């Protein structure tokens, strides 16, 4: 009933926007601008204003979109081919540079948040699927059936959804101090949009200080590429917290995952899907589980290095049919772990109950892990990087870390 109520609010808000202004026309009294077509020339969205995404909006190749500090972007309601999203196509650039005092916020049109606010005044932080998300696509290598692929969540008819290439240092812009909320609209069965999608994004791109809240699918999903990400916070993901695919070859450093009631895995790590065999590094993270959540699933020939990660608030795997553990799925992942292609070090956990370490960290991973009392962990994230500018911080969610 709660979600139905909010969906009715969205439809009403969308109708008001469409009947009160012409496309891309500024409304002087509230500084709200609706965008209904692709961005085909260099454009700046200005501090103090709110921009409404009236559909699936692409910044096309060769064009840059600059979003100034404090701007709020709201997606209208829509599912399937009508889901709203902001796509940064291959060859385009996004310069979304918020600050610690003026973060840039992506949210739903039903959100009554205004410039200068951090927390929503009317939406709960676990409400998801109200719009699409932010999709950044590049020309960096991916490991897939083809050098170039169509990103999930975008219809194949939209060529702005292509990603992948041969330029490892490709530059898609700068994303800094950005909060993405209430997204993950469903395109089709098992085909939702992630909060932040990074497809074939190159190492020339800066992605740091990003918060993703209440996305119906994954918080962040990497599809190949070489981009490095730091200071990432995921809160209440509807599926996985952090999902990696197609031999992403970058580094994630300093991250928090706060699982919600519907979170499946906090980490879902998949191996290459083609001949390219790159690997990534994930380090310095703190992860809070929930009653139905697994620490992680490493699948399909997963590879990479995972170090200095602290887990807590997960259930007893024996009492929850395998929830609350970190495991390797498939012979290829097990073989990669045995050979060192998939490596773990300095994992710590505070168990919810008195269970054996080997019941939490399966397949022999327990030799790289240890149990600690709550608050006694010596590895994990630096939560100060998320203070004040994130909704999670304002909502006191960081006090648990």
Q: What do these coordinates show?
A:
With 401 residues, the chain is mainly beta. The protein has one domain (2-400). Helix content is 9%, strand content 34%. It is built from four helices and 27 strands. It has helices spanning 2-20, 331-339, 357-360, 391-394, and strands spanning 26-27, 32-35, 43-45, 50-53, 56-59, 64-67, 72-75, 85-88, 93-97, 104-108, 134-137, 149-150, 162-163, 173-181, 196-199, 206-213, 220-223, 228-235, 242-245, 251-258, 265-270, 280-288, 294-299, 304-312, 326-329, 342-350, 369-371. The protein has a 16-stranded mixed β-sheet that branches. A nine-stranded parallel β-sheet has the order 5-8-11-15-17-19-21-23-25, with helices on one face. A two-stranded antiparallel ribbon has the order 12-13. A hairpin with a 4-residue loop joins strand 1 (26-27) and strand 2 (32-35). It is globular and about 55 Å long.
């Amino acid at each position: 009933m709660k979600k139905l109520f909010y969906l009715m609010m969205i439809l009403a808000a969308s109708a008001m926007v469409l009947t009160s202004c012409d496309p891309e026309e500024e409304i002087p009294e509230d500084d709200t601008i609706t965008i209904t077509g692709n961005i085909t020339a260099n454009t700046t969205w200005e501090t103090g204003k709110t921009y409404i995404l009236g559909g699936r909006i692409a910044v096309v190749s060769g064009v840059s979109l600059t979003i100034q500090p404090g701007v709020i972007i709201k997606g209208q309601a829509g599912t399937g081919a009508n889901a709203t999203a902001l796509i940064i196509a291959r060859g385009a650039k996004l310069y979304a540079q918020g600050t610690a005092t003026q973060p840039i916020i992506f949210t739903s049109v039903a959100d009554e948040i205004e410039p200068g606010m951090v927390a929503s005044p009317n939406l709960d932080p676990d409400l998801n699927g109200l719009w699409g998300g932010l999709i950044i696509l590049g020309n960096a290598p991916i490991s897939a059936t083809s050098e170039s692929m169509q990103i999930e969540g975008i219809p194949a008819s939209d060529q702005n959804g292509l990603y992948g290439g041969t330029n490892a240092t490709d530059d898609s812009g700068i994303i800094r101090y950005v909060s993405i909320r209430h997204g993950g609209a469903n395109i089709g069965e098992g085909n939702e949009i992630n909060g932040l999608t990074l497809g074939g994004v190159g190492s020339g791109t800066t992605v740091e200080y990003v918060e993703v809240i209440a996305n119906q699918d994954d918080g962040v999903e990497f599809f190949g590429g070489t981009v490095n990400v730091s200071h990432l916070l995921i809160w209440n993901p509807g599926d996985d917290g952090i999902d990696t695919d197609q031999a992403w070859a970058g580094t994630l450093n300093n991250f928090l995952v706060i699982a919600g009631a519907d979170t499946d895995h906090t980490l879902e790590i998949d191996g290459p899907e083609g001949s390219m065999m790159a690997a990534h590094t994930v380090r310095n993270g703190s992860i809070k589980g929930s009653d139905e959540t697994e620490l992680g699933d490493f699948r399909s020939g997963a590879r990479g290095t995972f170090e200095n990660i602290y887990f807590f608030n997960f259930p007893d795997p024996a009492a929850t049919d395998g929830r609350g553990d970190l495991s390797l799925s498939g012979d290829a992942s097990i073989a990669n772990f045995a050979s060192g292609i998939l490596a773990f070090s300095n994992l710590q956990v505070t168990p919810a109950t008195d269970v054996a370490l080997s019941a939490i960290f399966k397949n022999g991973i327990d030799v790289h892990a240890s149990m600690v009392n709550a608050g006694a962990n010596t590895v994990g994230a630096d939560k100060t990087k998320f203070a004040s500018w994130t909704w999670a911080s304002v909502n006191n969610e960081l006090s648990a870390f």
